[in-house]
C-alpha cells in the first residue's frame, strides 16, 4: 500500500473490481493512463481530480450532512465518513487528517457511542469479522476466510461488554473495534490493509437490544464463566497461530473480564488493553507533565482515584509501576500506600467485604482502623469529600462517569491544602465529566492543573489569560505504543515499554515550557506525537531484549517512519499477477 506520493503499485483488479475496492479505488483521481489501463474510461466523468480537490468536495459533503441539532448533525457526519471509508481509504484518511481536530470527535468519542447504540438500526454493509460463541466450532474456518493470504499486523477485538460509557452494546462492538483500528492508521501509520477488527459476540444483557427485532447480534443472554473463557482463548490462540507477530488489542471488555484476560495473555503475546493500559499511559504522561510544572516527583503525590473500574485500576497500576520504576528507592508497598480509591460504595476499605471489593483492588484497600475518626454516610461508607479532607490529595482523578461528582466543596477542600492541585475529570462523554474545567478553574482561583477525557474549550484565569485544557485522550499515545511494539516485532508489551512511551509524551507537553500551558500537546499534532512515542517504545523493546529484529536502537527512527502508511495514491500499473 502507498506510503509515498511517488510510489508505484502493480494491481490485478480492473473495471468495477478496482472501483469497488476501498483499498485501491481512486475515484475521480485515476489518471487518463490509469483509466485506459484498468478499463475505466467511460466509467468516470472526464475531469481528473487531485486528492486535495477530492478532499475539498468531500468536506463540503461532510458539512452538508450536518443538521441544526448538534448530536444529530454529528451522527449524520459519522455516517457520511463511514460511507466514504467503504469507498476509498486514501480519501477517507486524507480528509480526516486535514481536519483532525474537527473530525476525531465524530469518528470516535463522543459521536461513535451514538453510532454504536444505534448500530442495528443504521446497519447497511458489514465490515470486519464477526465471531459468535454459538459458532465456536467453526471459528478457525471463519477467521481464515477473512485473513487468508493477508499479512496482519494489528487485530482489534471487543466483546461489547462496556462500550464508551454506555455499557453493554452486544454486536455493536464491531464499530468500536473498527474505530480503534482506524485511529491506529490515522495517527500512527498502521497500514489499513494489515488491520483486522473483530466482534466477539457472546450475547448481551442489554434488555433493549434483546427485545429489539432489528438487533443484529446473537440475541441471547451474555455468556460468562468457563464457556466464555474457552471462546476467548480459542480466538487468542488462532491469532497467535496464524499471525504470531501481530499486536492484539482488547477493547471495551467489561471490568470483570478486562484485567483477567490481559493478565492471562500479556506474558505470551504482544497484547494491549486500551481501557487499562492506554488510559493509564496517557494519564501517567499528563501527571508527569504536571509534576514537572510543580517541580515535584510522582512519588511525592497523594492520589485520590474516583472510580475503580477498568480505567481507574489501569491508571493506578500504571502510576504505581512508574513510581517504582523511576524511583528505585520506593517499594511497591510504599507506592501502593499513596493511592486512595473511591467507588459507588465510597472509599475502598476492609469492612466493605469481598462482595463489594472488585478483583484487582486488593493492594489499595484501606485498613478500617486508619479511618475510625472519619464521618460515614448512612450506608457506612466514606464519601469522596471526607476522603479528600483526610488525605489532602495533590492529584484527583475521575473515571466514574458520575457527572458533577467533584463538587465545589470537594474541589475547594482539595485546593485549601494544595497550591496547584492536579484535577483530571476523565469520564467520557463530556456530559458525564466529574467537574467542568470552568468550575474547577474558578473554584481554585485559576491555579488548578486540569485535563479532561473529552475536548473542552479554554477557560479564563482571574488575570484574563486563557488556559488551554488538555485533552487526556488515549489516542495521543496508544497508537504509538502499539506501532512501536509492532515495528520492533516485540514478543510482549511490557510496563517499561509503556512508561517509555508516556515519558516521551510528557516531554512534549506545552506546560513544561509555560507553567500555564496545557498538560498535553494538542490533538492536531497526534501523528507526530505518536511517531515519537513509537520510536521510544521500539527502542525500549530492543533495550529489554523483547524485539525480534536485527537492527539497533539507533535505527528505530528510520524504521518507524519507513513502515508508516500515509494517505497518498501513488501510481498504479495493471499487472495480472499484482495485488488484489
Overview of the structural elements:
This is Malic enzyme. (S)-malate binds at residues 428, 473. Its cofactor is Mg(2+); Mn(2+). This protein has 23 helices and 16 strands. The protein folds into 4 domains: 8-107, Hemocyanin, N-terminal domain; 115-269, Malic enzyme, N-terminal domain (Rossmann fold, 3-Layer(aba) Sandwich), CATH 3.40.50; 277-472, Rossmann fold, CATH 3.40.50.720; 476-563, no CATH class. With 580 residues, it is an alpha/beta fold. β11, α19 (437-443) and β12 (449-452) form a beta-alpha-beta unit. The protein is globular, with a radius of gyration of 24 Å. The chain has helices spanning 16-19, 32-37, 51-64, 70-87, 89-98, 100-107, 111-117, 119-122, 139-147, 173-188, 207-210, 225-242, 255-265, 274-294, 310-326, 332-336, 384-391, 408-415, 437-443, 478-487, 495-507, 526-544, 556-563; strands at 8-11, 129-132, 154-158, 195-201, 247-250, 271-273, 303-306, 339-343, 346-347, 395-398, 422-425, 449-452, 459-460, 466-467, 470-471, 571-574.
Q: What fraction of the residues are assigned to beta strands by DSSP? A: 5-15%
Please report the number of helical segments.
23
The CATH first-level class of the largest domain comes to Alpha Beta
Tell me the structural class.
Answer: alpha/beta
Roughly how many Å apart are the termini?
Answer: 11 Å
Mind describing the biggest β-sheet?
Answer: 7 strands, mixed
Global morphology: globular
How helix-rich are the residues, as a percent range? 40-55%
Amino acid at each position: 500500500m502507498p506510503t509515498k506520493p511517488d510510489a508505484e503499485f502493480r494491481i490485478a483488479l480492473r473495471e468495477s473490481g478496482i472501483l469497488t475496492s476501498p483499498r485501491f479505488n481512486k475515484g475521480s483521481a485515476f489518471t487518463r493512463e490509469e483509466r485506459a489501463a484498468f478499463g475505466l474510461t467511460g466509467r468516470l466523468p472526464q475531469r481528473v481530480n487531485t486528492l486535495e480537490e477530492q478532499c475539498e468536495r468531500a468536506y463540503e459533503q461532510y458539512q452538508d450532512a450536518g443538521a441544526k441539532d448538534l448530536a444529530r448533525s454529528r451522527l449524520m457526519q459519522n455516517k457520511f465518513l463511514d460511507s466514504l471509508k467503504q469507498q476509498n481509504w486514501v480519501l477517507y484518511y486524507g480528509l480526516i487528517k486535514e481536519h483532525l481536530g474537527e473530525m476525531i470527535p465524530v469518528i470516535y468519542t463522543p459521536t461513535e457511542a451514538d453510532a454504536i447504540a444505534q448500530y442495528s438500526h443504521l446497519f447497511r454493509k458489514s465490515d470486519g469479522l464477526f465471531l459468535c460463541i454459538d459458532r465456536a466450532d467453526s471459528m478457525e474456518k471463519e477467521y481464515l476466510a477473512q485473513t487468508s493470504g493477508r499479512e496482519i499486523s494489528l487485530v482489534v477485538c471487543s466483546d461489547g461488554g462496556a462500550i464508551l460509557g454506555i455499557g453493554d452494546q452486544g454486536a455493536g462492538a464491531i464499530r468500536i473495534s473498527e474505530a480503534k483500528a482506524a485511529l491506529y492508521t490515522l495517527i500512527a501509520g498502521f497500514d489499513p490493509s494489515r488491520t483486522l477488527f473483530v466482534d466477539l459476540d457472546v450475547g448481551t444483557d442489554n434488555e433493549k437490544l434483546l427485545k429489539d427485532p432489528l438487533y443484529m447480534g446473537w440475541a441471547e443472554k451474555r455468556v460468562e464463566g468457563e464457556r466464555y473463557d474457552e471462546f476467548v482463548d480459542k480466538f487468542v490462540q488462532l491469532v497467535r497461530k496464524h499471525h504470531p507477530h501481530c499486536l492484539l488489542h482488547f477493547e471495551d471488555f467489561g471490568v470483570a473480564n478486562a484485567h483477567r484476560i490481559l493478565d492471562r495473555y500479556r506474558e505470551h503475546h504482544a497484547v494491549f488493553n486500551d481501557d487499562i493500559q492506554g488510559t493509564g499511559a496517557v494519564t501517567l504522561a499528563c501527571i508527569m507533565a504536571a509534576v514537572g510544572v510543580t517541580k515535584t516527583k510522582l512519588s511525592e503525590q497523594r492520589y485520590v482515584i474516583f472510580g475503580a473500574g477498568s480505567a481507574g485500576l489501569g491508571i493506578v497500576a500504571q502510576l504505581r509501576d512508574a513510581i517504582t520504576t523511576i524511583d528505585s528507592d520506593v517499594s511497591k508497598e510504599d507506592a501502593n500506600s499513596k493511592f486512595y480509591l473511591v467507588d459507588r460504595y465510597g472509599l475502598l476499605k476492609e469492612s466493605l467485604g469481598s462482595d463489594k471489593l472488585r478483583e484487582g483492588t486488593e493492594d489499595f484497600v484501606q485498613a478500617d482502623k486508619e479511618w475510625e475518626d472519619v464521618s460515614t454516610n448512612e450506608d457506612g461508607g466514606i464519601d469522596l469529600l471526607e476522603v479528600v479532607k483526610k488525605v489532602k490529595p495533590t492529584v484527583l482523578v475521575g473515571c466514574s462517569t458520575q457527572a458533577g461528582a467533584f463538587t465545589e466543596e470537594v474541589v475547594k477542600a482539595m485546593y485549601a491544602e494544595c497550591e496547584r492541585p492536579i484535577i483530571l475529570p476523565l469520564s467520557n462523554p463530556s456530559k458525564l465529566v466529574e467537574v467542568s474545567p470552568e468550575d474547577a478553574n474558578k473554584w481554585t482561583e485559576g491555579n488548578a492543573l486540569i485535563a479532561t477525557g473529552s475536548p473542552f474549550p479554554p477557560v479564563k484565569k482571574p488575570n484574563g489569560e486563557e488556559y488551554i485544557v488538555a485533552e487526556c485522550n488515549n489516542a495521543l499515545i496508544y497508537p504509538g505504543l502499539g506501532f512501536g511494539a509492532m515495528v520492533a516485532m516485540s514478543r510482549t508489551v511490557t510496563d517499561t515499554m509503556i512508561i517509555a512511551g508516556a515519558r516521551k509524551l510528557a516531554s512534549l507537553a506545552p506546560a513544561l515550557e509555560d507553567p500555564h500551558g496545557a498538560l498535553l500537546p494538542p490533538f492536531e499534532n497526534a501523528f507526530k506525537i505518536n511517531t515519537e512515542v513509537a520510536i521510544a517504545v521500539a527502542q525500549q523493546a530492543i533495550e529489554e531484549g523483547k524485539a525480534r529484529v536485527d537492527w539497533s536502537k539507533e535505527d528505530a527512527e528510520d524504521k518507524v517512519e519507513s513502515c508508516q502508511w500515509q494517505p497518498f495514491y501513488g501510481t498504479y500499473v495493471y499487472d495480472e499477477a499484482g495485488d488484489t
